[in-house]
Amino acid sequence: MADTTNNDVTTLTFERAIEELESIVKRLEEGKVPLEESVAIYERGEALKRRCEELLRQAEARVEKITLDAAGKPTGTGPLDIT
Length: 83
What we know:
With 83 residues, the chain is of the alpha+beta class. The protein has one domain. Helix content is 54%, strand content 13%. The protein has helices spanning 14-30, 35-62, and strands at residues 64-68, 74-79.
């Protein structure tokens, strides 16, 4: 695995971060990674997980719900109620 720092995680797209996170999980599940490397990639995985959560929160904040009239026709948009 390339020697990367957790700082560069902040520039990754959601798709790239989740792809790398899935790769890390697969390697850890196989159990064939030396302990020191396991710890390093686990820490990277945590940083990737936080990046994905941040990007999902940002996307969630931009989502709007479509408002409908009594006949069920779209009338516009409003803020999404996240409860």
